[in-house]
Amino acid sequence: MLNIETLKCTYTNEQVLVILLTRAYFGTQGIEATRDFLDKEVIDWNSFYKLISLNNIRGFIYDIITVSQITINPQIYDTLKKDAMGITLLGSYQAGLLSHLKNNFEKSGITAISYKGHTLAARYYKAPLLRESSDLDLLIPKDKLSQISKYLLENGYESKYNISAHQLRFVLRFHRELSFKSPKDRMGITCSVELQWKLIERYLGPFPRYDFFVQHLQRYTAVDGTSHTGLAPTYDFLCVASHHLIREPLLKFKYLIDLACIVHASSEQLNWEEINLHFKSYNFSPLLWSGMHAFDEIIGLQVPVSNIPKVPYHLFTATEMQTDNKALYKKNFYKKIRLINSMRSFQERIKLTIKTRLLFLIPNLNDLSRTNAPAWTIPLIIPVKIFRFLTGKR
Predict the structure, then answer these.
(1) pTM of the predicted protein model
(2) Which of 276, 243, 268 is nearest to 258 (CA)?
(3) pLDDT at residue 388 greater than cutoff 70
């Protein structure tokens, strides 16, 4: 585990404070180290709040500060307290929504696999409020997408994109998810429900899908004592890591905390040989090794895997809030690709770069929602996209 002086060579004081508070949560460094750091160093509290907001860890940081009785800027603390209340309300709403959806799907003979989000918080964190989440992620059988979408639309959910039934075959082949907005409750709370039939995009290559993961469900007890059905920890780690280490390699600090919580809470149940095997089979080993390296150096958690190559990791790379702005979306997309490429060979970088350039020619969900023309006309969207790109039109 890196000492504080070494951390300061790479990270800002605000980032080091986040790391120290995280170590206190996992018990890998005493809280006195945090107090000493605050006594000696100057913290820009507005920058600190922006940092934890960007990384979606406000509830996590608030709880550690409160439990450990750490003194911080009073205004920032009051803001975090209000944030924590909102996170708790949203989490409670998501818990009820998830239970309702899964029960109704089961009645129709559909087993949806929930991962990340509230499921991860309720199972691996010390309390659900410690993890921020704006959506529910459900891994589903691809042949049930039409049936599930129909159910959601008939029950007050709104589709983010107006995808027609005759476009679904194209969507299933070239995309990985459809997003729906849930009905608002009496307090106006809502969230996204993401229906996913594969975990990573085509340009990144293959990875296990629903048919593999559904074989590894088990009963477990959540932190509140309730019983649920979910993935065994080894396969939960694989599912979560497909996003946190492959799709968006530690883009947010929350991702490192998520994975560390699974490791910390289920260390004896994790089959690292199995995890390593799947990453190796699909040529993603460097991304896994970078995560393991970060566990050790940043948090102080060690995994029982020997001879792990010291692949570099990049933390706190999220610098802007999520947005629908197309220019910013493209900027963030290429930032993720650079992170992935930083851990690949030269030949692999060339292949991925070419694939991502070609990706912008494939009609996306927004393109499809603009037309209700027959499915055979979908390829005709490609020259329109090229024209828009060349002329700068949207």
Answers:
(1) 0.93
(2) 243
(3) no
